[in-house]
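User: Show me an example of a complex going from sequences to structure tokens.

Assistant: Sure. Here are the input components:
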Amino acid sequence: MRSSANQKNAEAVSPYLPARGTVEKTVAVTEKERFFSIALETPMDHTPGQFVMVGLPGYGEAPISISSPPSDEPRIELCVRAAGNLTRALHRLNPGDTVWIRGPFGKGFPAREMEGKDIIFIAGGIGLAPMRSLIKTVIGRKKAFGSLTLLYGVKSPEELLFKDELGIWRENGMDVEITVDRPHPSWKGNVGVVTTLIGAREVDETKTVAVIVGPPVMYKYVILSLGNKKLKGTDIYLSLERRMRCGLGKCGHCQIQSVYACQEGPVFRLSDIRHLKEAI
Amino acid sequence: MDFISKKDFRSLVEGLIKEYTLYGPIKKDGSPAFGRIDGFGQLKLSSTPSHISAKGFLFPPKETLLRFDIEKGSAEGVVTAEDQAIIGLNSCDVHAINLLDRVFAYGTPDANYLARRKKTLIIGTECLPDEYCFCDSIGTMTVEEGFDVFLHKLRGGFIARTGSKRGRSLIKKYASARKATKEEIAGLKGLAEKKKKLFKTTLDAEASSLPLIYAGADLSPVWDRIGAICYGCGSCNNVCPTCYCFDVKDDVTMDLKKAERVRVWDACTLEDFAKVSGGYNFRKTRADQLRHRFNRKFRYLADRFKGLFCVGCGRCSRTCLVRINIAEVTNEIVRESKKR
């Protein structure tokens, strides 16, 4: 009766088994960030704002938001900042190399619910990476939406992501405003944190939604500024960054009180989380 | 309910050793602990909870999830399970396993845990409270499901309750059991009543009211006070029968040709548990970390998994180096809630 140790159970499928991805293209976009186009064996059925667990053997896995819009092509795009061992190893990959992908995970932005509304996208730093998936989705069906605005803050001009695309988005009618935290000799545009771009704007609170993605410190101040514009918590969407190890609502790392960022998030309506201590 | 004699109990244990890998209470460094049982003499049924819970037999401290062949560029999932039996689990431990069952079946099922659980036989045994136990206040002093057999010690042997087909056939196969008499069943009830009077630790609120009481305690001064003395060692998480948080990381062979993705126990009371790669820590202080742990036991998971995640075993209090006592902390929060 006793079965051997380490016997394989053929019926049980490990939820930790990733799918193979192949790097098609990798471009350094800033000193710290690299853009990847990754070919998959089957299309990724994702919504903007969802994330994947990206892994390399020996380096582990990390949650990375998908930068590309939903598509029937078997391909995703990621923008990865070199911050730890895994992400540094990802930066060393070349076209043709294998990268292991699990996902998509979590809840993304409900683009359908934003139809007919003016949208203000507010991005800080690498927050533009997950936001790009939604921006491209919205621009792809721009007639369904009201006016589109992107307020984008970075520390310095060298940290701007997707520079070429910012121009394309402008050509598509999006009002793109950029600010850098500190003055820089090469920079002629706005200086100051991203909230300075909100202050002067006219916002019709009856038909506007705001989408915020940025570093943890940014949210509090942006939310205050939007509050001054009378925007309701139900009309503000944000994506929360958390440590994640499984993506399956089990490892416990991404827990915010009773909520798992990997299950109910990472995209939340402000009204659903503003009462949670530690959320923002 | 059946009565089995001491002699039949021995033949049951020996049958388990033959058929399964058997784990049960042994004495380790003078304390009750769970370990491998190869002979009847090793089994030391303890009346009080083991120092460390038995969760590791279902959710090992370290287990392989994936194997990579780096040279070939291949990956395979690893799900391992063997027939095993755990004897000597107390009522609180069985409740804890019932909770873990829900956690790992939730959403995307965790094949690793569930495969192991399926192949595990649970034999519970009756216990007596020590000064840290407070299961009676939580409602986990008795258990009705989640075991294959549950044994209650009685003069000359045990009353056996069976909770599954596997349990019933086990008793049939190894013990020449007879039906328990009315007197014996009545005696069992009497014992439970007597046991209730033995608790030195009790909670000052109904268990069902604890999620709400904890919800009002985010700003309680108790968190700073216990945060100031906590070492952040994670022992409370390790000994807890319902703590299931884990880290996932890779081990590589010396020749760099193969790698394994493993999961290891993690603890929300450790410094970096909620820290993201950019360096921001969502629970920076020991007070934040302890508030999180206590709330996870009494509030955060209650809705999702329909139950408190504290089973009243007292293990965290028993093991804490600075004597943070989960029942005392809870009672302090209960007292504060009455003032509000």
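The lines above are the inputs; the final block is the predicted structure for all two components together. Chain B has 13 helices and twelve strands.
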